[in-house]
Amino acid sequence: MTVADTQPKDGLEKTGVWAALARSTVLRSLLLLVIAGVVLLVISTYVSAYHDLQIATGAYYFAALAGLTVLAGCSGQISLGNGALMAVGAYTVALLIGNEGWALIPALVASAVVTAAVGWPVGAAASRLRGPYLAGATLAFAVGLPALADKFPATFGGENGLIINPPVPPASLGFNFPLERWEAWIACGGALVVMFVLYNLMHSGFGRSMAAVRDDEIAASLCGLRVGRTQTVAFVISAACAGLGGGLLCVVLQLAQPGAFPLQLSLSLLTGVVLGGLGSLVGAIWGAALLVLLPNWTNDLANSFSLSTKVSANLPLAIYGLVLIAAILVWPSGIQGGVRALGRWLKNRWAR
Amino acid sequence: MTKFIDLTLNGISTGAIYAAVALALVLIWRATRIVNFAQGAMLMVTTFIAYAVINATGSYVLGFVVALASGFVLGAVIERVLIRPVEGGPPLNAVIITLGLYTLLVAAAGMIWGNTPKSFPAAFSIRGYEVGGTRLLFAPNDTFIVVVVIAVALGLALLFRATTLGLQLRAAAFKPEVARLLGVRVGRMFTLGWALAAVAGSLAGILVAPSIFVGPNNFDPILISGFVAAVIGGLDSPPGAVVGGLLLGLALSYVSGYEGSSLVPLAALVILVLVLMVRPTGLFSATKERRV
Lengths: 352, 292
Known about the structure:
Largest interface: A-B, 58 and 54 residues
CATH class of chain B: Mainly Alpha
CATH architecture of chain B: Orthogonal Bundle
Shape of chain B: globular
Helix content of chain A: over 70%
CATH topology of chain B: ABC transporter involved in vitamin B12 uptake, BtuC
Number of domains of chain A: 1
Oligomer: heterodimer
Order of helices and strands of chain A: HHHHHHHHEHHHHEHHHH
Number of helices of chain A: 16
């Protein structure tokens, strides 16, 4: 993706509703948002509780993945700490809802804000130098942060973490409304907000600044862009998304626990965005689907081939590693890149 | 006061290990401008190989030698097969490849040896020296660690400064195109750089294994410390890596002794952020700070 891709290409000659949609990113994304919301609402109503839980899981993964894909794909930085940033969001929600008795939505907003505040100094420090420093600093963050739960067991509950009460569906939805469906709605609501904000951000002036900084820092600074600040802001935005993802995770699982946020979580998030296609929000959906479905598939695989626990427990991790390496060496644009190529091919066939 | 002396001695011994990891990272950075995030996993694998050899033969020396040799081969093969295609490309690609390699190696080790950490023998006694009736937190094995790391650092310095091969290595790292015009086999030098780095890494793995045990994820903090030590030293300078390793070893030993060992990785992060804020080029670097 280059800077030119993000410019509106056509639509100025057209009139009516379509012209308005083509011109206004906000209107377009609102329409997509409503469609996606309705689709999710319908699907979640007709599937089983187990699948509702899977949808909820995919939705909080998506929030974190979307932040990471914007950071890596649009601003060219890489963070290995987004799993730990999810922990910050999860603990924020657990503390605010469990101890302070906050309502759900303010607590989720707070999880994004607090995580952004935690991510700021890391991003600010690392944006002073080139790429690998941010990766290294965030790696240290991912390895070091879960230890805080042990250090302050009175606040963070040590190894066992914090437990909160499940969210209560509003009475207007009926007495027998399943909890899993309500959790899926909450998580999907959060994911859609992230989608809306990031989509508009990518198509805004700031999105173009990020792309310019990514493609050529010297040229960007000659144009008056503040390279370091643009990168720091991109990191803070991705931290906020990870924090919201972690907050949603805490609401869905009713648990914030250090063991839920190992280094592997950060690496699987990275695998998700690379596989989906860096810089693509739709790619983040593919990535979220992978993170939800892959553990199930490998479990089935391990069962049907009766593999030992040593092998089956490490199989998802091995696949993540292979996917990361193979994606970069063979197919760097990921699934969404493949879908786009297919779309272009079909369009050419159609035009002939 | 005794505690302070103990922590200082302990810091020197762990600092030597950090220095070896930092050396591994610096050698690779100099050769190919890549931070090798798979270093921790690579030295984990070679330490597991040493563990298997020691268990099978009962000989520490044999395990030691096999680990270093397998490190050499592993480093060379990884550079040739996985890293060569992304050299000179966007830094992001190299970072993702090394992370994929990290994930793959951790999973493979877990499949072969299981996720439960295993104990690893020390080369010499780990009972501290006795001075004037008090037992110090510094044992013959710590002397061994410090001596071996100093020997390796000096050996590398000799190789780089005093041999033709070292000159070729430096030339290939400094100006690949010019070196290639002058007949240096640049690709081969990069492979050798990775192999040497992996040897330094596997050395660190064996030396640290007795105190942290051998498990697929046990070496992650070592990688972090090595990275921070390398950044303190400037990421570009082998002497800087050694000094950075020792400084960090002392700092983290005090943190661990006075504040608790669970804070060590976070303390490493704080030190990293401070170094990047105050002196982003490290203490010994010749590279320029990025001006933005």
